[in-house]
Amino acid sequence: xxxxxxxxxxxxxxxxxxxxxxxxxxxxxxxxxxxxxxxxxxxxxxxxxxxxxxxxxxxxxxxxxxxxxxxxxxxxxxxxxxxxxxxxxxxxxxxxxxxxxxxxxxxxxxxxxxxxxxxxxxxxxxxxxxxxxxxxxxxxxxxxxxxxxxxxxxxxxxxxxxxxxxxxxxxxxxxxxxxxxxxxxxxxxxxxxxxxxxxxxxxxxxxxxxxxxxxxxxxxxxxxxxxxxxxx
Amino acid sequence: xxxxxxxxxxxxxxxxxxxxxxxxxxxxxxxxxxxxxxxxxxxxxxxxxxxxxxxxxxxxxxxxxxxxxxxxxxxxxxxxxxxxxxxxxxxxxxxxxxxxxxxxxxxxxxxxxxxxxxxxxxxxxxxxxxxxxxxxxxxxxxxxxxxxxxxxxxxxxxxxxxxxxxxxxxxxxxxxxxxxxxxxxxxxxxxxxxxxxxxxxxxxxxxxxxxxxxxxxxxxxxxxxxxxxxxx
Amino acid sequence: xxxxxxxxxxxxxxxxxxxxxxxxxxxxxxxxxxxxxxxxxxxxxxxxxxxxxxxxxxxxxxxxxxxxxxxxxxxxxxxxxxxxxxxxxxxxxxxxxxxxxxxxxxxxxxxxxxxxxxxxxxxxxxxxxxxxxxxxxxxxxxxxxxxxxxxxxxxxxxxxxxxxxxxxxxxxxxxxxxxxxxxxxxxxxxxxxxxxxxxxxxxxxxxxxxxxxxxxxxxxxxxxxxxxxxxx
Amino acid sequence: xxxxxxxxxxxxxxxxxxxxxxxxxxxxxxxxxxxxxxxxxxxxxxxxxxxxxxxxxxxxxxxxxxxxxxxxxxxxxxxxxxxxxxxxxxxxxxxxxxxxxxxxxxxxxxxxxxxxxxxxxxxxxxxxxxxxxxxxxxxxxxxxxxxxxxxxxxxxxxxxxxxxxxxxxxxxxxxxxxxxxxxxxxxxxxxxxxxxxxxxxxxxxxxxxxxxxxxxxxxxxxxxxxxxxxxx
Amino acid sequence: xxxxxxxxxxxxxxxxxxxxxxxxxxxxxxxxxxxxxxxxxxxxxxxxxxxxxxxxxxxxxxxxxxxxxxxxxxxxxxxxxxxxxxxxxxxxxxxxxxxxxxxxxxxxxxxxxxxxxxxxxxxxxxxxxxxxxxxxxxxxxxxxxxxxxxxxxxxxxxxxxxxxxxxxxxxxxxxxxxxxxxxxxxxxxxxxxxxxxxxxxxxxxxxxxxxxxxxxxxxxxxxxxxxxxxxx
Amino acid sequence: xxxxxxxxxxxxxxxxxxxxxxxxxxxxxxxxxxxxxxxxxxxxxxxxxxxxxxxxxxxxxxxxxxxxxxxxxxxxxxxxxxxxxxxxxxxxxxxxxxxxxxxxxxxxxxxxxxxxxxxxxxxxxxxxxxxxxxxxxxxxxxxxxxxxxxxxxxxxxxxxxxxxxxxxxxxxxxxxxxxxxxxxxxxxxxxxxxxxxxxxxxxxxxxxxxxxxxxxxxxxxxxxxxxxxxxx
Lengths: 232, 232, 232, 232, 232, 232
Prior knowledge:
The structure is a homohexamer of 232-residue chains. By secondary structure, chain A is an alpha/beta fold.
């Protein structure tokens, strides 16, 4: 089985990190192909960049010339998943939704800890549209920009742990979702420090994509995600 | 005052029609400039095209070289408004939200009548995110594609009136919103035939944009719609 | 065009102030007529007074002997708007809803800052019934009574700014609605001090009423706001 | 214990019928005093009349010169209950809420069957504000005006039973609330014909009012229902 | 009239206390029979114990050999009420719902103060399923275990009063529900100290059960609570 | 990896069928152990039986003497999952939630088709508590009892297909969840006949349980699902 995992920004080192994280949890026999969009922002921190990323991700997937069995969109709170679902016959999994879904099997309420404060409303909106917000205790920002997660990993862990701790003590979260593709390698550390399960969206998405493929399930084509008309 | 009104598809005749409709209701002294995206779909009937339109609309607005006071995004249920809000200092009005807002001043519940069935979930999602769905009785499809509104206006009126009638009798709507930029000239006819107020999104958006400008109000820049960082 | 704007209390100086504020934003050619109820409370701070005001406002409007094109009910969180909609053929705009509607075009979430704590649940209830509460971050009280806004304007500004600041920092509001007819002249000051858009309900209501009139739209008469039966 | 039960319209024969219905279920030792407002509509079928009734009911209660232990507002879907709660130290029970509350102890979902279609949104709004709408399957209109319940009781029963039947079969209601003070004597007949429990709001309100008095509970005075200020 | 009130744990002294509390408010002519389950936990503090209690309570009621007119399940936030409703022809009242219902007649918002923090989500879930959560300001834990209410009554009162005070000042509750069967005797003290109405679930449930019996109302048998099939 | 899958009724042939269905989708190296409760109902069709099943399932799992890595509760709309989560350190997956979760990755809305009408409210309640109801278009009953699925498979397929078709055409479902453990083998047939993805809860639950185990994730123990106290 081949799964495409598409970064939402154009930073190759993040694509690499996301691919590595995905491979760690992939089943034997699953090939992970990590793609970088040909255009877009170095890091996606707001709506303009997120809309550009939506098109960049669709372009990257449609330009890929080999067969594949599922696609993962590896951006937290980003636009675009519905477009991929229209264009493809294979399952599409967004890491924001994958993480929330996994978290809801683990505790009564979950929180998301993300990068900058301005990303919070985007994530809240995606969870709301996905109907996964009812058990979301909070979306909290660590104040660290996406690229700082790579350049200042220690400060990032500290800031994320602080917000995760507040999510548990103040917001009654019982599970933490790491709200950024770039946080992929921090989960073990944070789990240890907070004492609650920590869900990484990339890892969750890989197992969900594999599961849907194994079950022979793919996107319904009867209404919302019917293929675009040829005239378009 | 100059207001840009941006079509979401690349069909010039629709841009023209939208501009005309806007000028009909604009106040004296308001200049309406109707823009067509440089790329995108001839008509936007689904998510892929809608995401492309989001970027096409942003491109069209950012490429416009004269000063302007407000922007209207003239697509029903389309993506992209939040991106414009980040990029601009002037107010941005989406016609889906403008129509719903006006309708809510006129009756207890409103319905939207749109083109194809596949557009329904997109409109429902936009209204939900905008927090304007609570008093939405239904979103109904006439089964007419966007471009058929121009080529078969009589059948279009008939199909829309039928759904509007069902919205009133079955769903208890008291106001009808015309859920497509291309329906702009049909409102008087439909109002006469259904007996309830009919709101055209383009017209509503023009008066709302004018109002915000006159009140000296524009998009808040403190969080969600802060300008993109230069590094992006 | 003539717009009636009706104060909800019997204090003439407040009617005068409301009329002045309305005239500031009215379009050329719009005549603003400010009315005071013949009975009711000097200031409306609770439900009993608010119900009395509902009837007082209807009485004031029905007693007005000239033609008019729209009515604005200038009380924040007050009862009665639905009654006016039944009795009249012209549009009726409540300032609570007008302010919320304008705010929702400007930011992801908005807050209302009102007078006394006891007014908070009334405003929350009106926003809920109007289906405009989903994006309301909070309704906060400044602790200043309606009449103190006139007698102690400096303390009022200070108290309102403090609550507006907390609404932004604690509740993540991106826009502030001034939740009292009597706050009408304070908006510029508060806007400057908080850095976010500040919406005055009276001003917003004037432009909305004008817009509905220009669009030829009025209250739907098919169900909820059908005229009272003659037998009644 | 003395309980005032206040009709919302000025039709004495309905006040009499409401009083009789209340006495049937009152505990030994409970005195029921049925009051008619001094002003208002012969029957309350819309918002204007309902707001007038709100003030008429408050006037009737405040004009009553004997001591009393609780007040019941005997109108379905009417305004005004919050005003009474401010003015009084004794418990106030609205029959709309009393019926819904009782119904929720009896089945998973309940429906309300009321008089005219135009009363439906008023009842829906009251249930929503009271937070009792979540388990409301539907509010259905029999098409019979309030006064026709007295003049054409057979047709009324037939029309109500038909809607009650549809509420059970189509809307999955398991309990029916009779949505009008004037339906008070029909409940046994309708229960027999539909096979589900039928709740009369007047009867439910009497037992709830008695219960609150016996438990020594009355309206909280800390915020929403604090007494009006003397200056008002 | 005979009402069975069933403790959810196996501690006889708590059954005794619950019975005494019920008798204090029961009407003349109402016989209260307090039952203890034959199996289960000494105190119910979580889901496992609560599910066991659900079956224990059903067993206790079905083993009772005398006729009875209503059943009260005297556990706060516990499972099982729906099972009793299937098995019985008489009304079943849960104290969690009884308290919330009474509180909603007394103030705009109510809070529940319960024992341990882990009971909070159970109570929230029960209120949500019952559709009684909309006006619930908060569910707060005193940190006192069920059995400590008996062994350390002074500390219990202090801890409960502290949380009740915070519910009023921070969460805007206007009424407090005592969220545990074992708190039954503390209500007067707490009412005095907090200044808001305090509802004891046992007391509220007794008057509601009596009311339903007097009104001749019982559980609807058409769908959710139809009796189990004989084959089962 | 060993996964326990627990039937909720005592019918061994259904346990066998559930085990077979689970093994079909299990990954190589996953051992499926299917358990039957020692007590309970032959088929679970209502709340009484469901509460009994909750305890029966907990008993079956706690009596199992070998190590295991995850538990699946194979009943649709049944009580008890939260109890297992308290008692165990391994992940617990309910098939109702597993099916809904998978469906939400495949289409905009999903419907559940279950056995008897009386099961509908139980399923609705479980989805609501799980926060998975927002995108649920409907829960529909085929009218076939659990045991009839085995004895009359052809009629069952026909009845389920009819309801699935209505869910798609009337309720706008884009995915169907088979709402009963006993429907496990019918999914391919129904998928072919309806043209939309069909999710079997058992199959979905197996892949989700495997995923959680592979990701090293288990139930959070900080609040709701903390282990029962020893004193209990």
